[in-house]
Each structure stands twice: as structure tokens, then as C-alpha cells.
Fold:
Amino acid sequence: MSKIINFFLVSFLLLITIFFLFSQLDFPGNYKILLVQSGSMSPAINTGDLVVVKPISKYQKGDIITFWSKEKINITHRIISIQDNQINTKGDANQVSDQDFIEKNQILGKVFYNIPNFGYIVFFIKSIPGLITLIIVPATIIIYQEFIQIKNTFIKMSKR
Amino acid sequence: MLRLLFLLFMFSLTLIRTTNADFVFKKTIKNNQFSATTLDFSQLKTSNNSAIESLFNINGILPGGYQVDTLRIKNQGGTNFSYSITFEKINGEDNFCKNLEISLIKNGQSQYKDSLVNLNLKSNFNSDQNFSDWLVYIKLKDNYVSSKSEFCDFNLNITGFNDPDQKSGFKYKRLISNHISSI
Structure:
């Protein structure tokens, strides 16, 4: 029974790790996973959510998109109008639309999925305490255990 | 195997990039507590709080002619910030733009009264309010002389800074377009 649980756990972790790592590769058409850092798309998307973004061929009014602003900031807002390749966007929680119109080549993609609150874990892992407790300490323990195991194997081999 | 995968998964999370639902943000990670606050503002009509895209649209202004309008800059974010109001020429004759004067009055006190093209004003919200109301007065100099029709298209750029000195940190800009032409 424990072997089955272990198998499913390994498979699940493997799949989502590949999913997260693959999203960081920059090639045309690839999806992206992004961490939302502020709340002007609330209540659709809140601070601390993770969004899955994928480029599509045609965007339409109402789509939530992620784009590069002229200031080279990554923004996630909703399309409120499209005219002659000029796209106007607005945060759902903002009273006014975004000042600058954007063009299609500025768009990273459409938000397809939102993982609520998972970003807080990411924020924690990216912080110094998070790096220490969830990466450095476990990695040190694993390396130490592997080292002991290799050492014991060598001792056993030398005794033979 | 499971432990290694868990580590790899944690590592993959550190690679995730960020997106802002707002344009500018400030984040604090302290004692494992996360908080985020936004820097966002809008320019509104003082009468009904509707958004302003354009302020002055004057055709046929005469020497000595002027117009007055009002503007509300409202802090819609979660953090206080300072802001600047600057001139940016978009189109038109330099000489005509230089002959325009602008006066900016906040809370009954004059904050700027000089040439439009030199406008570079720094301001803050009052500590007890999340908005600033401005009286904006624009005038063509009395001694302006020209034999042809000239115009000046310009933006009033309102830039919010989370740095009180407006030198570093995050900033967010909004534009108000204007058009003024002579006869």
C-alpha cells in the first residue's frame, strides 16, 4: 500500500516539477506561470495567486492578459477594447483604464488558470528564511545522508 | 527519490517570475509575513469623480485669453506616495508653447505660476486625505504676436513615486492630453 502511495506521490511531484520548470523556458507558444504581486484584478485574481498564461492567436474583449508595459513591467489586466490593433486594458479593481494602449506584440498571453494563494508559498521560498528551511537545510540533510551511505558502502567493500 | 523530487520542486518554485496586477508595487517580507501594497492613482473630475483623459481643448485663444479647469488626483492604492506634474510637448510650434503660462493652485495656495514648458512641480497628498484637488489656470501671454495660426498639443504627465525624493524606487505615470490653438 505504501509503495502505491509513494508511486503516486513521486509521479505527481515529477509532473508538477516538470510543469513548473518547463514554464520557465522561453520559446514561442510556451505557457508561463507567474506570481501576482498586487491586487488591481481583484476579485478575479488576487495578490498571492499564481496565474497560468499562454499565448493565443486572437485576443478579444474580456480576456485577462499579461503584457509588457512600455516601462518594461509585466502587467496582468483585462482587455476592455480593441481597435485597429490598439488594445486598451484595465484592472478590474481600478476606476480608470490603463493610460497606454498596447499592441499585440507586447502580449505574453491570456490567463487560462488561476491557482489561488499558492503564490504565498512561492514568496516564502524566495525569501531568505524560506530558502534556508525548504531548500538549503533539506539539501544539506540529503547530501549528508547520501555521503554516509556512500561511506558505509566503501567500508563494507573494503572489509570484504 | 521523493526527497530529491521535493527539492527539485522547491527549486522550480524559486524560478517563477512575477506579474503585477497594478503597475507599481511595494512588498514586504518580514517575520514570514507577506504583505503587498499598491501605488495607483487616477485623475478625475472634481464635480463627479469621472475619469479625465483630456483637460484643456481650446481653439482660437487670444493674447491674454485664459481658461480655468479643475483636476482631482486620487490615491487608489494602498500606499502613500508623492507625485510630480510635468509638461511634455507632443506636437505644435515651440514658440506658441513657450508663450503659454500655467498656474497650479492646490488648497487655495499657488504652487506654480510660470511658463508651461518649464512645468516640473513636485507635490504630496495631505496626510488626512487620499486625494488632491487642483485648480489649473492656463493663459496665452498678453504680448503674444503671430501672423498665423499656431497650436500646442501637450501632455500633463502626472508621475507617482513611492520614493519621497522622487529619485529612485517605483513610479507610475498617467497622462492628461491638451490642445490649445491660436486663431
User: Anything to note?
Assistant: The longest strand of chain B covers residues 171-182. DSSP finds two helices and 13 strands in chain B. Residues 23-37 of chain B have pLDDT under 50 and may be disordered.
